[in-house]
Amino acid sequence: MxxxxxxxxxxxxxxxxxxxxxxxxxxxxxxxxxxxxxAANAEAARWFAGEGATPEALLGCAADAVAASPExxxxxxxASHGDxxxxxxxxxxxxxxxxxRPVSRSIRVxxxxxxxxxPAEPLVLVTVQDRSAEVALQGQREELLAELQGxxxxxADGIVVTDLAGRLRVFNRRFAELFELPEALLSQGDDAALRxxxxxxxxxxxxxxxxxxxxxxxxxxxxxxxxxxGRILERVARPLLQDGRGNGSVxxxxxxxxxxxxxxxxxxxxxxxxxxxxxxxxxxAEHVRRLLEAPPEPGRxxxxxxxxxxxLSLLVVDLDRFGYINDxxxxxxxxxxxxxxxxxxxxxxxxxxxxxxxxGDQFAIVVSPADTAFAEKLAARVLAEVKKPxxxxxxxxxxxxxxxxxxxxxxxxxxxxxxxxxxQAMRAVKDxxxxxxxxxxxxxxxxxxxxxxxxxAMRQAxxxxxxxxxxxxxxxxxxxxxxxxxxxxxxxxxxxxxxxPGRFIKVAEDSGFIVQxxxxxxxxxxxxxxRWHAQGRGLPVAVNVSAxxxxxxxxxxxxxxxxxxxxxxxxxxxxxxxxxILLHDEGGEMLKRLEALARLGVQMSIDDFGTGYSSLAxxxxxxxxxxxxxxxxxxxLPDDDGNAAIVRAILQMARALGKTVIAEGVESEAQRQFLQxxxxxxxxxxxxxxxxxxxxxxxxxPILADPSPTPHRRRSPRIRLVSG
Length: 724
Description:
With about 725 residues, this protein is of the alpha+beta class. About 40% of the residues lie in helices and about 25% in strands. It has 27 helices and 26 strands. An eight-stranded mixed barrel has the order 18-19-21-22-23-24-25-26, surrounded by five helices. Strand 14 and strand 15 (about 395) form a beta hairpin. Helix 12 (about 320-330) runs antiparallel to helix 13 (about 330-345) and helix 16 (about 440-465) packs across helix 17 (about 500-510).
């Protein structure tokens, strides 16, 4: 930058130049009359003449060209019209290096002589202070404040800062939302009104107002406040420190309402049954523990036990055949029935007694104090209440239940053994016919040990080939000819002697050993059918199949393999299935297996028909060709009118469905004659023969002239009563 000086300027060493050189900021002097710079310091030269320039580079230059901000130009214009007022402002100036810098600039007129002995004249002193660092720091501070504000607004907690006097200095939007502060109040800046609004939101203003925003020392734990409407807030306070000294407090408020509600729901779910709302098994165990550990509570009224005797009774109530309701009426109806049963049982209890749901259709009752007599009365009331007719929607039916009772401390001092023994007593009721109650007997545990011993002996017997099959003839009521044989399992043990099936079959089913046992029976029976077939006797052999065996994934394949290995026509094997197999058919899997067996050519029958809860619609769909009337309905024929009506109804239904009917347990000629007159197809029982060994069975078969298969010759029924 160059300019031709119009008048002399202050040379180096001039007092004015020395004065400007002592200033820390860029500065120069210009004549007011021609705006020419007459003195400058090195900082001004570096800014406006370039790095390394000396002050002389600015001498004679136009002052309004060196700093040409709008404020500078306006001041010089005003000065030319006589306005010499000082100018102090923050502005931006362009420097020699092309940068624009924020500065604080001062312009004022001073009276100074340019030369020694010369009169003072008006000069313009311009100083420019670099504000780059200050502006940068201010920007960082504003950015930090913006980040802090954004963080405060983004947090889920309400934040408020108070000073040492307790005045609210700043708070975030969440704080206002938690206390539902009106928008108009937020913009007023009225601290007293804000505090009054906060206090008015408290559920207990008198108790909580003083401690809501009271200063607290560092390290004090959280406190909780309840607001009107039930919202729960947790407050945490920390001192606000500045230079190591307290300058106020920072408060954090967190809404715990949903968290506490969720925790309560989880606690409730963990301790209660979700359907009925009753206590669950875990809650029952805790209740029993508290009762047994607590000192005796006098004056509980009826059922009070004498000191040192029974202090608690636990009753396990299990609904009888409840699965039939779910399977026939649906689970929604089943749930309504469970709710109704829970209400009925609850109506039988005293205040303080506990009712829990501990299984799908199983409830437990804890009464204390209660002795045996009181437990008996309660069990009778529950049996009677549950037995009352139940109506759900358009379905009306009658339920029964089986109840087992255990007493503390005689049967146990903890919930688990008491439950186990009450359940054992309940199962004993089930085995005895259901619909009753029973007190736990110590021999029950002995029975379980006996079951374990029997299970082990069975497994050893299978390995040692001690099982055998006997065959009971199945006879045509029309011709008197043997039409088939039912394979019946028998077992003689070296120590126990002849073990009846009624004793070991149930144990095998409970332990799961029935699957292995059933496979052995299947292979052995099919093998015998093959031998008879080879002799020319195409005699079907019926094999009982347990529900557990039928449910095995590879059951159909096992049947097919047995038939193929024996080389017999599939029609010579008949599988006797229980109704329970048909009842528990989730997703139609059992029906698919029945259809697969039918495609295989195997005959199938339903054993013990009439004792279960079969759906007639389902019975119509399944590929079963024969129904077997249970011996319970044959007993008493022909004199028992009820049994006679049931048998006729079964026969009529079977004819409508095109199915063959066989009656088991026929022991008298009168029974056989009734069945023949009623249209039954076949029978088996001691009237003709018990289950026979193979040799004895074959003696009753017709003698074949040659080994080729021949059909049975029709003949008149000739039945004789046998014994043994």
